[in-house]
Amino acid sequence: MGRKWIVAVLLGMPLVFGAGMIYLLMHPQLTLTLEDVMDAEYTGKDITTDVVEITDTACGTAITCVEAYSTGEADYYRFRTHAAAIEHESTLDDGFRVNYFVMDFAGKDSSVNDQLFAMQVLAGIWNDYEGDFPAR
Fold first, then answer.
1. DSSP per residue, 50-91
2. Cα–Cα distance list, 49 to 16, 39, 72 (Å)
């Protein structure tokens, strides 16, 4: 029994590691950060104006995000899991979620059209968003 267990571990660990690496490569949503979103060059109007990183103050026990930025259009939060993003978005009066990201529009003075465009740009990063955008 002991010898078979050691062989299984020695053969299984590389397989598990390899499968994990393939998953990360095939699941780019996990590797995209809000910093990438903020630094990206978009055609058309800039939808990330007045960018400020707020991770240290926003992410913690109340909001279990891993990264957060504030812009003139919305506060952006990135979460480790879809479930955490869904949970946080459900607490917002005026928010939007796509994959691991949540946008909170509360207290922002930018135009409705700019906020809608910001949602469309964030959702368009993966080209896998299905559904309507919240009424602005």
1. S-EE-HHHHSSSSS--SEEEE-SS-EEEE-SSHHHHHHHHTT
2. 42, 11, 5
Other CB atoms closer than 10 Å to residue 84's CB: what's the count? 18
| pTM recorded for the entire structure | 0.75
Q: Residue 15 and residue 7: Cα distance in Å, rounded?
A: 13
* 3-class DSSP string for 80-100: CCHHHHHHHHCCCCCEEEECC
Instruction: Report pLDDT for 129.
Output: 72
pLDDT, mean over the chain: 82
Q: Which two tokens stand for residue 46?
A: 């800039």
Contact 62, 77 (CB under 8 A): no
